[in-house]
Amino acid sequence: MLWFTPAMWSVNYVVARTAPGIISPHVLALGRWFLAGLILAAISRNELWRERHHTTKVWPQYLALGTLGMLICGAWVYWAAETTTAINIALIYAASPVLITLGAVVGLKESFSWRQGFGVVLALLGVLHVVVKGQWTALSQVVWVLGDGLIVMAMVSWAAYALLLKKWASPLSSTARLAATCMGGSLVLLPFALTEWVTTPHADWSWTASLLVITAALFPGVGAYWAYGFCQKTLGASRVAASLYMGPLYGSLVAWLFLGETLGWHHAMGAAMILPGIYLASQKSVTQ
Fold first, then answer.
1. Residue 283: what pLDDT?
2. Overall pTM surpassing 0.85 (yes/no)
């Protein structure tokens, strides 16, 4: 299961690159997280009802988490996939744990070693290497695409999401809290999805669109979440944290097998900086 979990997350890259022309980004994100929220709410319904007073009291938190985790890290990723590759998405997103470490130092006053600092710099340089396609000596000739910029913003947003989850204490279990966050995210996504549906050209709803929504909800949504939780409970947090380093490898493999994308030298060099950087930046938290 430890090896299977990042594979389920990688399914989202295939969904993102398949969706253009079939279903629009915000509509896809709304369908994904609303369906995932319904499934998680059904599982944790007794707990959600028991803690309903606390949940309604802190509802702005769930709207904020939904904006960061479901709008920016959901719809914007699908939007980005219209102009960038799944390989770029996987590699750039891989650096989010580095920003989480940096944010924990600045915002949560956690300790920070020189080794972690070196890891942060190395990983972020790797991200930039992927974004500029390795053309450091000819930056003026680089063709900048909107998708890479959106993924960089999504990476920052995911770090903020993770830090706020840690900062805002909750009596809810992780399952019930994710269900509440999915509902908050669905509320935030709803006006964007309706506007997108009404004002932009789109294909008629199809079985393929339904399949993309269900796949995104079940595999990178509920499935990956449950698998990760199961592995963490069985093997411990430190061993499971190492599985996050396999994300770019799985993402690149999926992009090559199912989407026909090719790896360039700038991808290989970026990965050679990002992956060790993640390891060094998160080494302290992993050993704990």
1. 63
2. no
